[in-house]
Amino acid sequence: MKISKTSIDDLNLVVKIIIEKQDYEATVNETLKEYRKKASMPGFRKGMVPAGLIKKMHGKAALAEEVNKLLSRELTKYIADEKLEILGEPLPSLTEKAIINFDSDADFEFAFDLGLSPEINLDFEKIGKLPYYEITVDDQLIDNQIEGYANRFGENIPAEVVGEKETMLGDFAQLDSEGNVVEGGISPKNVQIAVELIKDEAIQKLFIGAKVGDVLKFNPKVAFADDHEVTHLLKVKHDEIESVNCDFNFTINTINTFIAAPIDEALIKKIYGDETEVKTVEDLREKIHTELKSNLLYSSNYRFLIDAKEALTSAAALKLPEEFLKRWLLETNEKVTAEQIEEEFGTFRKDLDWTLIRTKLAKDNEIRVQESDIAAMAREMAQMQFAQYGMSNVPEEYLDNYANSILQNKEQKQKMAEKKIEDKVLEVIKEKSGLVFKQVSQKEFDDLFEK
């Protein structure tokens, strides 16, 4: 077997592999012997079919299979031995196309195009210090969180009159052009409507002051200006929405007003459990301050990731084998067109730039992810999941069980490992570049994403 390479430029390479008869002959002959042992044909005892007939029937397939196995194995080994850092996968060469004839050829020549990863040089002194935004936990953020808890544990109580914050349950009845109820028309029962969700000001005013038993006439499509929402209210299909652009009667059955839970010790126990050390409203505010400060670190680090990506990819200014990559994307994605690849290549390119830089930093700094790192991350995810449902005092065994269920998902586990590597790379970047800390309010932080 002969293997050689030809550099087209710094980023493109052609690898040529010549597979000779002595490379495959013995293995193919052994394969045909196995075929003969198992062959059963009319006129011959099992295992006694003539070798020539077996070769005629199976020789080409056995040869092709063995040559392809050799080709795949040797190409992979060559790339590893030569320490070639390739992008994508080897593709049949466009410049040195081989004509393979398994019927007549004894030696077979193959050529592959390879796209190479570029050399990456990062000068952190030139990159300079990167901004790191720390969101200030002010009274407004704490008030908003407490209000959220109060609303979560609030309740609806009956009301006599509709106001701006009330919700109603009532029955719809479709009307014809003369204002009469359509017999057999659309008439869903016990539909919930919230006054503050009504978009049309005139119809909203129609509800204000109404009482149980009142019948209000309006067009739901005008009231809500959202066909998707109207289909749910009237319980019709999306393709029927145009046919219901008419007035309906809405008979009010019940009126409810929402009352937020009082901010007291009872609310605190609902949030943190009966055994909590949080006893007073002052304790609650301090607890929320600590929680928000911890939670906002995720936002700060996410913004730092965006800024670090931009700074490092711009500074590295990587050159890539773009034409090879476009061809690779096209040949490995059946449902994607060349036009789509051309249109979306900029996004792919940015992601690849960052992946190459991240991999380089992880390798240079010997970053590893341990099973314990992933297990801790899974447990953290479990805590966050429970917290989204207002469960702050989840028993340890529940957290462990949920974390273990996350770890059973191989795809999810791999994503967590990649995320942990990225987190560690970001810590390296922080150390190497240095940080400029900037205190910002939540609004100022949100505005950063509008730029």
Describe this structure in words.
A hairpin with a 2-residue loop joins β1 and β2. The two termini are 58 Å apart. α1 crosses α2. By secondary structure, the protein is α+β, with helices and mostly antiparallel strands. The strands form three sheets. Strands 6, 7, 8, 9 and 10 form a five-stranded antiparallel beta sheet that branches. The protein has a four-stranded antiparallel beta sheet with strand order 1-2-4-3, sandwiched between helices. The radius of gyration is 34 Å and the shape is extended. The chain is built from 15 helices and eleven strands. The chain folds into three domains: 115 residues, Alpha-Beta Plaits; 203 residues, Trigger factor, domain 2 (Orthogonal Bundle); 105 residues, Chitinase A, domain 3 (Roll).
Quick one: how many beta strands? 11
Helix and strand succession? EEHHEEHEHEEEHEHHEHHHHHHHEH
Note the beta-strand portion.
15-25%
Distance between the termini: 58 Å
Helix content, binned percent: 40-55%
Contiguous uncertain segments of 5+ residues? none
Overall tally of domains: 3
Globular, elongated, flat, extended or rod-shaped: what is the shape? extended
Architecture of the largest domain, CATH level 2? Answer: Orthogonal Bundle
- Alpha-carbon Rg, integer: 34 Å
For the biggest sheet, the summary is: 5 strands, antiparallel
CATH class descriptor of the largest domain: Mainly Alpha
Structural class: alpha+beta
Total number of helices:
15
CATH topology of the largest domain: Trigger factor, domain 2
Report the average pLDDT across residues: 91
